[in-house]
Amino acid sequence: MGQAKSKLKKVSKSKKNEPQTEDKTDEVGFMCGVVEGFYGRPWTAEQRKELFRRMEVMGLNTYLYAPKDDYKHRLFWREKYSDDEAALLQALIEEADTHNVLFVYAISPGLDMVFASPTEIAALKNKLLQVKSLGCKAFALLFDDIDPVLCASDLEEFQSSADAQASITNLMFETLQQPRFIFCPTEYCASMAIPDVSTSIYLKTLGSKLDPNISVMWTGPKVVSHVINVDSIKTLSKVLQRKVVIWDNIHANDYDPKRVFLGPFKVMATKPGRSTHLIQHIAGVMTNPNCEFEANYVAMHTLATWWKSFKPERVEESAAANESTSKPVTSSPTNQSKPLDDNFNHGDYDPDKALYEALIAWLPVFSLAKYPTCKVVPRSGTPPAMPMVPNLPIVSHSPIATVCTTKNVTKPVVSVVCKDNAEGDKLTTNKADCDVQMEENDGKLEEMQTEGEGNKNKLDQMETEEVTVTEANVPMQTDDADSDVSMATANSSAATDVEEMQSSSPDSKEREVTQQNELSKDNPLSVEDITMLAECFYLPYEHGVFGRQMVQRFRWLKDKAVKMSQWKNKKSEDYLDKALEWSEKAMIFEEQCRRVQGVFNKICMCPNRALLYDLFPYLWDLKGVVTMLRSYVKWLGPTSTFGWVGPDPEPWVFRGGLSGEFQRLLPISSAFDLFCQTLPRSPQVSTYIVRPYVPTDEESVFSVCYSTWDDGKRDMEMFENHKQLPADRLTGALLTLSPEYCFVVEDESGICGYLAATLNAKDFWKKYELAYLPEMREKYAKPESEDEMNDAEKMIVDLHSTDDRYGYGSDSLAVTHPAMMTLALTQCAYPNVAKSMTVCLLSALKSHNSSGVHVIIDSNSKYFQDLYTKLGFTEITDSPSSATDGVTIYGRIF
């Protein structure tokens, strides 16, 4: 123990007394490249080799190997690599060198290392020397995301964690004969510095004790920084006594399984930062990008463009002073409605131009015949651990005040008939939002009058919702195994190729890609298509132009629909003008929704299945939410906001990206489980349409009810003469008495499912007795004998019964679950459609102030009990109905 202490302090002392020499960054150049440092399944060896090839073409020069879930990098850092693992690592190092990429091997011993233990020091030495023997020329020690408190034995040897980390880092630096070396501190951003950067004892200790030729990594003001300005870097450099290497998390998505970032390397639209003027003050910039390898083309390409845009001869010292100071992000209308800041000095870098150039270069990649070589983890296919809160808008729009709709609408506010519009396919490439005028008009609207209390109303018809699902050809594999992996498993494609081969032969893969080639030739992707894609999955703190336009239009339509429903004189010229304007905006929004659907279909047909499989979970989420919005323009309810979020939060506060923001605009945003739909096994397109019920659908709905009665398993001969009887018992009544809350789902062959409901079950059953049953009793004559009746005869007897139809309901049920619903799907219907229809219904009910719904289920129907359980329903045990009644009541609060 004492010998280890002496050796460590000797190294630290000798370096402290040496004169400050020129930073070694000048010898090896500015480091610009990629950090594989995210939490999640590491990339495979083949993906890394492709990464090196792309980096060479783009002009990036450094790769840092630091996957958090490679257990020999972090959790079991002491273990040396096996022969197979070492051979694979050596091959990667050689491949990187072939493409002029510096391979930096990083190790993270900070979780449990005893700094004063000779055994621990020897283990770290041996591990790094093994990697050096494989040809590695650069190394990194990472002490991020750890508890900095030292153990008792370390406290006897070192004054602080910074002292211990600097000592062990200096020793490894000397042991490896002073190679290119990088250090990641525990306080790696300004928000973690205690108390702040300029007075942090930890950072000052590193500055004085860490060898001056060792680079220090820094993420900026926060873990995910939207502002990194020159002044803050100058302050940090003085404290650390060296230039820093920026570890940039602007494209990292490991904190939110529903977001992927395809925007350019840039600042937030309303904030400065990341000017090329930074380059002369730092030793490098490395992006820690998306977990999905194929999603990182734009991030890498635009970073390379940013670096190559730097022209030292054109940089003036006054440039940094011209940068705006950082201001916290708030949800205030002033901050969020601010126009894009075009006055910020990016230096010679134009992020919009860089994005366009990156997309031009990325487009051919979609056409490459490429297969996925690893298990695909559908990160967005499983429900999140918590609801996607808070209900805060992300960027560029003012929050709409909570609106409580207490009256229904007597007539449709507008009749929106959406037709294909060629102009809808043209992308707005400038930064000026077309909805600025829309927002300006908000203030000009005169106060609308409310209708009288006595008026009874009906709901408006809603727009169609298309639900695209896929049939299984090549399985999209999921990963249920432990995420901890080693170099031999996660980094090698060999282990996963076997599993892929088991499910899909090379011939079947080739046939699939050939089919996709033929389809994609008929309807190829364009630059405009992937520009829209990038603008929907833009950056952590902002949406792209297309995404912002959709959010603003949807908010505008929602707000105006509520106001117009309260207008008293619906024949006035002012009202008609407003209705026409609303209709025009709705048509534009409809076209945008169609465009999202079209791009989704095109990408699903692209030959590059590896790229598709990386993007598909995010496309699936976005497409699902957007298509729902087409049905909710007139059904949207109030949006809540939460005030507990700080003024300048990290991006993981805003869950779900554009899809999450759309979800928060729906009145049932808290029902997050209904938005987490199971990913299909293979991304091939088949379209379902969820739409409101119309009277001409009655025959088809009755047919579905007939075919699905008793789970579709019973012999239906007893209904041969009464095929409408299963539907007439309940579904027909809902279609007759409450059609505004009924929906159908169609596929290519016609209607394959329905959902029928009523806003108030207690009132419904009264109308059922008075207005519906008399007609049914005339239609179905009561059997003369009630002995040995079949199910059809029992149903007819029930229609003639005078029992209280709401006898199953308690007073509490009428308060907590007043609405009632029933649904049915044929066997050919995709299960996720049930969730889509339920979202439609719950949104409609919520907009009319209902917050609970119940269903009546046959106690013997395991299928429907399981189906409703998956839809978030639970059994209501205080219902007066019992097992002898043969029914069970399930309910859901929303």
UniProtKB/TrEMBL annotation:
Residues 1-14 have a biased composition (Basic residues). InterPro entries: GH, Glycosyl_Hydrolase_84, O-GlcNAcase_cat. Residues 321-338, 486-506 have a biased composition (Polar residues). Residues 15-24 have a biased composition (Basic and acidic residues). Residues 1-24, 317-346, 476-523 are annotated as: Disordered. The keyword Transmembrane does not apply. GO terms for molecular function: [protein]-3-O-(N-acetyl-D-glucosaminyl)-L-serine/L-threonine O-N-acetyl-alpha-D-glucosaminase activity; hexosaminidase activity. The keyword Ubl conjugation does not apply. Keywords: Glycosidase, Hydrolase. SUPFAM superfamilies: (Trans)glycosidases. Pfam families: NAGidase. One of its GO terms (biological process) is glycoprotein metabolic process. It comes from the Eukaryota. Residues 30-311 form the GH84 domain. This is GH84 domain-containing protein. It comes from Ciona intestinalis (Transparent sea squirt).
